[in-house]
């Protein structure tokens, strides 16, 4: 049989790690990205630099591949649904329609009786004044946000005077949760009621950017069970194919909330590379390419550290032992708050 060729939209570190996993199982990768300096360029078999609405290039891309997937959720729905008519796109484009907008994502969760933070849609400043009972809160852009970008902490209405928020786009205002812990659950769904699920991962954020992920998560058995159940329910309801991640909050009163859903492989799941027989990237590729599902087996516990901005200089020069696994995303430019690499430290091996 000839090699399967997988098209991946987006060329960041998630794309790179997908390409590395694909290589291990003899699948060819073609990345299309609108960033000429995409880190995934170093990992893909073929690389196309293009805007995502360039018809010529999209045609070339789809002609080179058997299946299409993506590494980030901010791809226009129209682009994905057009591509899907030529080569199958998974997770299917309807997933993106629901999840790329915070307001529709939240309504999807409510429909499924999943607990989320109190929120309202905000289009102008007077909407915030009307919803002052949500303060202190976090104002989040409805689309295109990541790593806390497009978010404002609002302690009270007076904060509006100096924040200079431009209401040229839609927001949601979420009531601040007094968080005790954040966890995430990564799941790979292959078909109806057919999935593999990783154990909950404990996450610590600094300045709204993920800094540390650890397994096992120090959480009680009911949160352990409920978070996995909700991740399963979400992936079934979306009829999702591939790897998905659900982010959760546990508040100081021990309530569990879903924060958001990432329709892709996830930063917190990087530790699965060194702790499970099959990692989140390989599982994504297996599901999307219709390969056999393999039962997950955990090998060891671990902690992952995100390397942000110029911290990378230290890590590039450091010596590592056999329990430390350093990943350099080979990004051309070091920028503050930019994820440059990660380090996973395993235990009990
Ligand atoms: P992003 O899309 O940037 O990941 P998130 O909504 O996940 O945005 O927010 C990033 C981080 O900000 C969360 O992981 C959490 O630490 C903090 N945060 C977000 N929403 C809330 C909230 N309602 N209450 C308290 N902290 C929050
Ligand atoms: Mg998040």
What features would you describe in this structure?
- Strands 9, 10, 11, 12, 13, 14, 15, 16 and 17 form a nine-stranded antiparallel β-sheet that branches.
- By secondary structure, this protein is of the alpha+beta class.
- The chain has helices at 13-24, 55-64, 77-86, 93-99, 102-111, 125-130, 159-163, 221-237, 272-275, 280-288, 311-317, and strands at 5-9, 28-33, 46-49, 67-70, 119-122, 137-141, 151-154, 171-175, 179-191, 194-197, 201-206, 209-215, 242-251, 256-262, 302-308, 324-328, 339-346.
- The protein binds adenosine-5'-diphosphate (ADP) and magnesium ion.
- Residues 247, 260 line the site of magnesium ion.
Compact description:
With 349 residues, the protein is an alpha+beta fold. Helix content is 28%, strand content 30%.
Helix content: 25-40%
What structural class should be given to the helix and strand makeup? alpha+beta
Tally of DSSP β-strands: 17
Bound molecules: adenosine-5'-diphosphate, magnesium ion
Oligomeric state: single chain
Task: Output the keywords.
globular, alpha+beta, binds magnesium ion, 11 helices, single chain, 30% strand, binds adenosine-5'-diphosphate, 349 residues, nine-stranded antiparallel sheet
Q: Topology, please?
A:
Layout: E1 5-9, H1 13-24, E2 28-33, E3 46-49, H2 55-64, E4 67-70, H3 77-86, H4 93-99, H5 102-111, E5 119-122, H6 125-130, E6 137-141, E7 151-154, H7 159-163, E8 171-175, E9 179-191, E10 194-197, E11 201-206, E12 209-215, H8 221-237, E13 242-251, E14 256-262, H9 272-275, H10 280-288, E15 302-308, H11 311-317, E16 324-328, E17 339-346
Parallel strand pairs: 1-2, 1-4, 2-3
Antiparallel strand pairs: 5-8, 6-7, 6-8, 9-10, 9-11, 9-13, 11-12, 12-15, 13-14, 15-17, 16-17
Helix pairs in contact: 1-10, 3-4
Bound molecules: adenosine-5'-diphosphate (ADP) and magnesium ion.
Magnesium ion binds next to loops.
